[in-house]
């Protein structure tokens, strides 16, 4: 079973990701959630997720900085960034972190 950390500052998006996917069917379970990058970094250190699904643009610490810091501790973590911003710099930064990048509409 893979442990998943979901990080998003939008409560509706966070709830949607948590509740609209049958995680068990995919061999995953949500180990924790966070509302900003700093909280996400703390939760990742405490819970050691296999997968992080994160928004990029968030208060306190953005998702890119969070993952950059966490990959110093756990370079093997799989990362999926989701964002509604069509900014090439975000995609380039995600690729540099060896992460997947999904553009939401």
Q: Any overview of this molecule?
A:
The chain has helices spanning 11-19, 37-47, 63-73, 88-96, and strands spanning 2-7, 28-34, 51-55, 78-83, 100-103. It is an alpha/beta fold. The protein has one domain (2-85): Response regulator (Rossmann fold, 3-Layer(aba) Sandwich), CATH 3.40.50. It has a five-stranded parallel sheet, with helices on both faces. β3, α3 and β4 form a beta-alpha-beta unit. The termini are far apart. 30% of the residues are buried.
User: Cα-atom Rg, whole angstroms?
Assistant: 12 Å
From the coordinates shown, what is the CATH architecture?
A: 3-Layer(aba) Sandwich
User: What is the chain-wise order of helices and strands?
Assistant: EHEHEHEHE
Secondary structure: number of strands? 5
Q: Identify the strand order in the major beta sheet.
A: 2-1-3-4-5
What global shape is seen? Answer: globular
- What is the CATH topology? Rossmann fold
**CATH domain class name:** Alpha Beta
Termini Cα gap: 30 Å
Percentage of helical residues? 25-40%
Q: If you average the pLDDT, what whole number results?
A: 86
Unreliable spans are none
Provide the structure class.
alpha/beta
Count of alpha/pi helices: 4
Portion in strands: 25-35%
**Largest sheet properties:** 5 strands, parallel
Name given to the CATH homologous superfamily: Response regulator
Q: Tell me the domain tally.
A: 1
């Amino acid at each position: 079973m893979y442990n998943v950390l979901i990080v998003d500052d939008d409560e509706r998006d966070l709830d949607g990701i948590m509740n609209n996917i049958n995680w068990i069917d995919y061999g995953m379970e949500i180990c924790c959630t966070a509302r900003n990058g700093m909280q996400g970094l703390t939760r990742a250190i405490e819970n050691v997720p296999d997968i992080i699904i994160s928004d990029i643009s968030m208060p306190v610490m953005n998702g890119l900085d969070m993952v950059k810091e966490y990959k110093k501790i756990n370079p093997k973590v799989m990362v999926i960034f989701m964002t509604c911003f069509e900014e090439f710099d975000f995609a380039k930064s995600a690729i540099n972190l060896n992460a997947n990048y999904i553009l939401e509409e």
